[in-house]
Design a protein that fits this description.
The chain is mainly β. The protein is built from two helices and 74 strands. It has a six-stranded mixed sheet. Strands 62, 63, 64, 65 and 66 form a five-stranded antiparallel sheet that branches. It is elongated, with a radius of gyration of 32 Å.
Length: about 850
């Protein structure tokens, strides 16, 4: 965890098409790298207890904790080292001259800034043979106590410490410092150790009994904000439960305008506080908090890692994202320029919906993980470690990531007892930015209302007419205007959008047909349908069903027979037993017409029902599958469409698409989510994007994919609409690992100017949302970002292209903007790709532009 105004080995590359930076409202994921999954050789072994703190001063590493012995990696000789030791950062050899032997736990070791001494804090009363109460300054060369530094008596242990802006901060369970009353958080003079008046604020109360205490704190790199977590309730009498923020920019520490109620919820009563660690990002714009507490549901704070924005203000600031382990502790956290490293005794990440078991979306991570700072999803990095209690401290340097813990195996189970260094030569990944205009806009699906001579009849049995781009509309068959296709006396019921459809429902079938059902309460006559079809015509009869009534949600509560032309084709049919409640399905039967197709439904239990019917000739070719076209587009003009080679992609099944860094992501009607390389004309092989499905099937996400009517990527999130729904949803997404967020979240609903239920394909640029509707128009709306998610700006909608505007018919099914491997677009209006790289090591930064 950083404690100084210091950025260590941070590099970022920002790529954009036609500009040096993405629009201010879009949030790019910068290029970065992860440390290796393999630990460096030569580090010493701490043989018992816990390593609670790791710091580096020049070429010396210092460890504090609750241990009593250690050995060099190249030796079997045990060395007595009580709670504090030093070793050479390059050779790993334990210092023989630094043996201060404090008589109690060392919670924190901090560089004093002179290259020769360190501050040591914890629960000791003697160190280096000298009486010191919980805090001391010690020489690295020989372990001697610096006599000029003496804080006097500290009543209660110190849990954390930091040196920033000439002030030595201490936090813990103390009530007095240097004989004066000061609880939980204080500042000392770094030269003398005397308590100073900079921090006089009153931290009081508790979460669940126990002592009022600050467990961990961190200061922003600029020193202007301090965030502390622990067992407390109020700050100067105002509720700041388990988390507080101080403004430290002035002449004294004052409460900031940031407060949160997120940690008011009770977790397990086993913990006085379930807070565990906190760390600021290198830029100081956000901080991350880790907790324990046992599983507390998919919306609570227990056993989570959560990001908060530093600049947020208000009485109840909520986290920007929350990552759930499913009931296992996340202990230590370290935020770097590329990742949020977390360590604990967890088994999974992205596991919001199950306690002590893997739920949908769960990603296996054994005791250590690297998270995407933009959304909290795990990267593919997965060294693993023996879990124990947890990782108690991290230190990220140019030499890699130091990991301090209570266990002895890490990185493919290498023996690294309680301290390990994961090498810096890990994997790198490119920046991910939202595609921009000007660009080529690709349209998936047919370019107009294409006839399909194979389709003889389509009937939406109880709902309104549904227009489709290929073949005839699904005709209405309402009670107000009954057709001659079925006998009278039927009943109609309408519902919200169906939850999902199964793989029997063909691509292009509107899921809205399952929003209504025609049901028959009368056994005399039974429900009967008649369709004139020329005798001798080979056909397929397709019948569509979905059990929507909660009254028959259990198998056995609704059963019926179905006959086609007098032949029993469905015997004792139970939709719920076959596919589940609130799920659309289709049954198909091949026959040769005798001049009239008769379909009869017969009562068994409850009432027969049907959602739709389709009759298709099998001796006539159907319409060509969906095509793909592209048009050059700027923010004010739309060019002429050009057909693009379809490759081996079945475009008729695509329900949503977007591009990132030369990869084309496709959401398909069967629920699959795949990516292919795409350069504008040629396609690579399909690769399943299933980072969230390696542990358990992710059926909720597959249902979302199958029901999509629009999809686009922006700022670490997948935004999408679902058939029949009036909401805009999003899930987090990290391209590096292919992990999709476990939780489906709502970005917007009931926004003036857009009806999400009418969306027929969409794309976004980070500043503008574009979507098509059934009337062939393309509309645009301003898009603004918040801490939780982006959203369209009400009242800004307008038609930007369409049959009545510029003669263009936007009748595709999905749209996407091109993005090449460097993050740039395509088309004649594209400016050359521009990039710059900023690299910082220690206090020196370099700038390179191209």
């Amino acid at each position: 965890m950083r404690r100084f105004h210091l950025v260590l080995a941070v590099s970022a590359t920002i790529l954009a098409a036609g500009a040096l930076a993405a629009p201010a409202t879009a949030v790019p994921s910068p290029a970065g790298s992860l440390v290796s999954e393999v630990a460096a050789s030569g580090t010493p072994h701490v043989l018992d207890g816990r390593v609670l703190s790791v710091t580096q001063v020049g070429n010396t590493m210092l460890l504090g904790g609750t241990f009593s012995s250690a050995r060099n990696d190249s030796s079997q000789t045990t060395l007595a080292r009580a709670n504090l030791l030093a070793f050479n950062a390059q050779t790993g050899q334990i210092s023989t001259s630094f043996v201060p032997s404090p008589n109690g736990a060392v919670q924190k070791v901090v560089d004093a800034g002179d290259g020769q001494t360190v501050y040591v804090a914890g629960n000791f009363t003697s160190i280096g043979g000298v009486a010191r109460s919980r805090v001391a300054r010690v020489r690295i060369s020989d372990g001697a106590v610096v006599s000029t530094f003496n804080a006097g008596t500290v009543t209660g242990q110190i849990r954390d410490m930091a040196l920033v802006d000439g002030r030595l901060w201490i936090g813990g369970a103390f009530t007095h410092v240097g004989g004066g009353a000061q609880r939980a958080l204080a500042t000392l003079d770094p030269t003398t150790g005397a308590r100073t008046s900079f921090m006089t604020r009153d931290v009081a109360g508790n979460h669940n009994d126990g002592s009022t205490q600050v467990l961990k704190f961190d200061l922003a790199p600029d020193g202007d904000r301090l965030v502390a977590v622990g067992n407390f309730d109020t700050l100067d009498g105002i509720v700041n439960h388990q988390l507080l923020m101080l403004d430290t920019s002035g002449t004294s520490a004052v409460p900031s305008t940031f407060r949160t109620g997120f940690y008011l919820q009770a977790c397990s009563q086993s913990f006085d506080s379930y807070m565990r660690d906190v760390d600021f990002s290198p830029a100081g714009d956000f901080f991350v908090v880790s907790t324990t507490g046992a599983y507390g549901g998919s919306n609570g704070p227990c056993d989570t890692t959560a990001r908060f924005e530093t600049a947020a203000s208000g009485a109840d600031v909520q986290p920007s994202w929350v990552n759930y382990t499913g009931g296992d502790t996340t202990y230590g956290v370290e935020v770097t320029g590329s990742a949020v490293y977390v360590g604990g005794h967890f088994r999974w990440q992205n596991n919001a919906f199950r306690g002590d078991a893997a739920g949908q979306g769960a990603v296996a991570r054994e005791g250590i993980a690297a998270l995407d700072p933009l959304n909290g999803l795990p990267y593919s990095w997965n060294p693993g470690r023996t879990k124990g209690v947890g990782v108690f401290d991290f230190l990220h340097t140019a030499d890699g990531l130091w990991v301090a813990s209570d266990t002895d195996r890490i990185g493919n189970w290498q023996l690294k007892s309680r301290i390990a260094r994961l090498r810096p030569d890990g994997t790198s990944f490119p920046a991910v930015t939202t595609p921009q205009l000007p660009n080529d806009v690709y349209s998936v699906g047919n370019a107009g209302n294409v006839p399909d001579p194979s389709v003889l009849y389509r009937v939406n049995a109880a709902g309104p007419q549904i227009d489709v781009p290929v073949g005839p509309a699904w005709a209405s068959d309402t009670a107000l205007s009954p057709s001659l296709r079925h006998n009278g006396g039927q009943n109609r019921a309408g519902y919200a959008a169906v939850g999902s459809v199964d793989a029997t429902v063909a691509a292009g079938t509107p899921s809205a047909i399952f929003d209504d059902e025609l049901w028959d309460s009368d056994t005399a006559p039974e429900q009967e349908w008649d369709f004139p079809v020329a005798s001798g015509t080979p056909i397929k009869v397709r019948l569509f069903f979905a059990n929507r009534c909660d009254c028959t949600a259990t198998p056995g509560q609704r059963r019926f027979h179905v006959d086609v032309d007098g032949t029993r084709v469905l015997n004792d049919f139970d939709v719920t037993a076959a596919v589940g409640h609130n799920r659309g399905t289709m049954r198909e039967f091949a026959i040769t017409s005798d001049g009239n197709v008769d379909i009869d439904l017969f009562h068994l239990v409850e009432n027969p029902m049907i959602s739709g019917l389709e009759i298709v000739r099998t001796d006539v070719p159907g319409a060509a599958p969906g095509v793909i076209t592209k048009r050059p587009m700027t923010t004010s003009t739309v060019g002429t469409a050009q057909e693009v080679p379809a490759g081996s992609v079945d475009w008729s099944t695509v329900r949503g698409a977007f591009m990132l860094n030369g990869s084309l992501y496709l959401a398909n009607s069967d629920g699959s989510f795949v990516r292919r390389s795409f350069d504008g004309t040629a396609y690579g092989p399909a690769e399943a994007v299933d980072g969230s499905e390696q542990v358990v099937p992710f059926t909720d996400w597959r249902d979302d994919v199958a029901a999509m009517t629009g999809l686009f990527y922006d700022s670490g999130r997948l935004y999408f609409t679902r058939s029949g729904s009036s909401q805009l949803f999003y899930r987090y997404f990290t391209a590096e690992s292919g992990v999709v967020g476990a939780k489906r979240l709502v970005a917007a609903a009931n926004v003036a100017g857009i009806d999400f239920a009418q969306v027929r394909g969409m794309f976004g640029t980070g500043t503008t949302l574009y979507w098509a509707t059934a009337d062939g128009n393309l509309r645009a709306m301003d898009w603004a970002h918040g801490a939780q998610a982006g959203a369209p700006v009400a009242g800004t909608a307008s038609v930007v292209s369409g049959p009545g505007a510029d003669g263009v018919n936007w009748s595709g099914r999905a749209y996407f903007l091109f993005q090449d491997a460097q993050g740039g677009g395509s088309g004649p209006n594209q400016a050359p790709h521009a990039s710059f790289t900023v690299s910082c090591s220690d206090l020196t930064c370099s700038f390179d532009a191209s």
